[in-house]
Write a structure and sequence with these properties.
Order of helices and strands: EHEHEHEHEHEEEHEHEHEHEHEHHHHHHH
Helix content: 25-40%
Strand content: 5-15%
Radius of gyration: 22 Å
Shape: globular
Number of strands: 13
């Protein structure tokens, strides 16, 4: 069976998904619509056995599409892939949509988009609980965008001076909770410190807000790390405080912390509540006060913290194993291979102009854009990437609505 993956680029998240998945003994090719920036991820995927094609010409693209048993489209609402779907050639293929976003808020995943493909797989079972996707039945499945968690299960706590609450992941407020500092300030633990791993895009804002609370000296920024294991080994609690409107699905950072045996605390929302079993493999909270009390509870009861961490490690090892994930992927491919090839048209999903293509991923805040007040929409729309108006404008600068929204959001 020959599989052709179509992806906009090779970022760390999708790269980890490929590396964790492996080729499953199949002939798998990844076709990138853009030249990759993350060359380390690209090399890992190539080493895992995947053939890589970067921005092929039209004749090569047609040849690859015609020879593929299945074409898989890696979806994040990226403008390059949207454009590719709008211009998809009249070539019969079997198709799978692989959604690497949850669809919780933005980018929104419509039933129409899912139904345009022969089969759809999501990176978290939470997506199948969304109202618009519940009725789609057996045409949908789950294949996590998993990293290999096995190397985290052998980590041991290392001695350190201060009680440390850690976080690994995106530090932009499209993912991190906008009241993150308020949550941290609510922790009544003496001499607590916060270890933050990730691109420090909001470092100045966090430190300025922490200064007002008198806790700025407690924050330590480790930047982007190729290997987060040494930092995890010096954490006492993993505090995963995400924006209620975040786009995350598999949540590798959370799974890695749990595999490392860390007691985790997260908000009772979205994908987090499908991963953490409250009171068994972690704690789910609803407010800064509850979060502060939960951290203090684990600080005062290290034996309970150790038990939660051990149970988390065992649970994710059983539920999120690479072997099970590969079986789910193979089953989805076998189900799709039983179908005949057919021509696909995606113009029904992406009609109109590029501004309308962007709006196809907007649900709750759509009126903000229709009434030309994008500044009233959620924080994620101010990002320069993540499928935002500025992201789409950078690809389609001639679109007047995108240009206007991008200008309003950049103020």
């Amino acid at each position: 069976m020959k599989l052709l993956h179509i992806a906009a680029h090779m970022g760390g998240g999708i790269g980890s998904a490929y590396v964790g998945l492996g080729t499953c003994g199949l002939d798998q090719t990844v076709l990138l619509l853009e030249k990759p920036i993350d060359l380390a991820s690209l090399e890992k995927v190539r080493t895992a056995g995947f053939r890589i094609l970067v921005t092929p010409d039209e004749s090569t693209l047609r040849r690859e599409l015609l020879s593929a048993g299945i074409v898989l489209f890696n979806w994040t609402h990226h403008p390059a892939l949207t454009k590719f779907l709008c211009e998809f050639p009249e070539i019969p293929v079997r198709s799978i949509l692989w959604c690497h976003i949850s669809g919780n808020y933005f980018p929104h995943i419509s039933a129409g988009l899912v139904q345009a493909f022969d089969h759809a797989i999501f990176a978290a079972p939470y997506s199948l609980e969304l109202p618009q996707l519940r009725a789609l039945g057996d045409r949908c499945g789950v294949v996590y965008g998993l990293n290999d968690l096995s190397r985290f299960t052998v980590l041991k706590r290392r001695p350190h001076d201060r009680f440390t609450v850690g976080y690994v992941g995106t530090l932009g407020f499209c993912k991190l909770h906008p009241d993150f500092v308020e949550f941290c300030a609510a922790i009544p633990v003496p001499d607590v410190q916060f270890a933050l791993v990730g691109q420090p895009s909001t470092k100045d804002w966090i430190l300025a807000s922490a200064e007002k609370k008198g806790i700025s000296e407690r924050f330590h920024f480790y930047g982007q790390r190729k290997d987060v294991a040494p930092v995890l080994e010096e954490m006492d609690v993993f505090g995963y405080l995400l924006n209620p409107q975040h786009f995350g699905a598999t949540e590798n950072a959370l799974l890695e912390a749990m595999a490392a045996g860390l007691p985790v605390i997260a908000l009772d929302q979205c994908v987090e509540r499908t991963i953490i079993r409250d009171g068994e493999t972690g704690l789910l909270v609803h407010s800064p006060e509850e979060y502060g009390n939960a951290v203090r509870y684990l600080y005062e009861h290290p034996e309970i913290a150790a038990r939660l961490g051990a149970q988390a490690r065992e649970d994710v090892g059983a539920r999120f194993s690479i072997e099970k994930n590969r079986k789910r992927f193979s089953a989805a491919c076998e189900q799709t291979m039983a179908l005949p090839k057919r021509e696909h048209s995606f113009t029904g999903c992406f009609s109109g102009q590029p501004a309308d293509w962007f709006l196809s991923g907007v649900d709750a805040d759509r009126v903000c854009f229709e009434e030309d007040r994008p500044q009233d929409a959620g924080r994620i729309f101010r990002e320069r990437t993540k499928g935002s108006p500025m992201h789409y404008h950078s690809y389609f600068p001639e679109d007047e609505r995108l240009a206007r929204w991008a200008e309003q959001l950049s103020k």
